Amino acid sequence: MPPSETKASAERSFELERIVFFSDAVYAIALTLLAIELRVPELAQEDTAGLYRALLAEWPRFLAFALSFWIIALFWIAHHRYFRYIKRYDYRLITLNFLILFFIALIPFTSSVLGEYGDSAGGIWLYAVNMLLLGLSDAWLWRHAATRHHLVDAALAPDLIRALELRTLTTPLAALVVLTLSFLIGGLASFGWFSILIFRRVLERRDSTNF
């Protein structure tokens, strides 16, 4: 490979690393901010039974924290996987990556609202819309990068591209499930997020591709 091409390849690799490192920082900060909403109960005096009752009363916030931590972790894993296969970048990729990071950075806020108002339609809908738009942004990025091998390795198997594309739809589908359940069972609709596990399990059985 001529020196000029080697230099250009190294520069592209460095720029992709910058995108990944910056994204990793946003994911890490979002995960850290989630814990800020976990409040320590204030008791007038030492009271173990009272402390347990107070902690139990905080279960909606703990549930919102655990749910959001898990979802952010899933999206970080997906992001890591995409950039394992993405070999080039363009400005649309950067823009779409920032769109994903916008919705990731918004999660601590919508998670806080869910923890505080998870028994109301407004809290559930706000969080679900955040997840819906995040999932669609994630799908958009991968589709832009992988369609006709635009930014990924030309040798990347079509079955793998399709499998990853289908997996990007699990969170948007779960968001639609939660939005639907909110009209039927109110605050319990948040448990509909566990449908992500069901959708992923179905995809794993459908496609045994190792990725």
Explain how this protein is built.
- There is one protein chain.
- By secondary structure, this protein is mainly α.
- 76% of the residues lie in helices and 0% in strands.
- The chain has helices spanning 3-34, 48-57, 59-85, 91-117, 121-146, 158-167, 170-185, 195-206.
- α1 (3-34) runs antiparallel to α3 and α7 (170-185) runs antiparallel to α8.
- The longest helix is centred in the first third of the chain and has 32 residues, at 3-34.
- The radius of gyration is 20 Å and the shape is globular.
Task: Give structural attributes.
211 residues; mainly alpha; 8 helices; globular; disordered N terminus
Topology, please?
Layout (H helix, E strand, L loop, with lengths): L2 H32 L13 H10 L1 H27 L5 H27 L3 H26 L11 H10 L2 H16 L9 H12 L5
Q: What is the compact description of this entry?
A:
The chain has 211 residues and is mainly alpha-helical.
Assembly type: single chain
Q: Rg, please?
A: 20 Å
Write down the overall geometry. Answer: globular
* Count of the domains: 1
User: Would you identify the regions where 5 or more consecutive residues have pLDDT less than 50?
Assistant: 3-11
Query: Average pLDDT across residues?
Result: 86
Which structural category do the helix and sheet elements fall into?
Answer: mainly alpha
Number of strands: 0
Number of continuous helical runs: 8
Helix content: over 70%
Gap between N and C termini: 30 Å
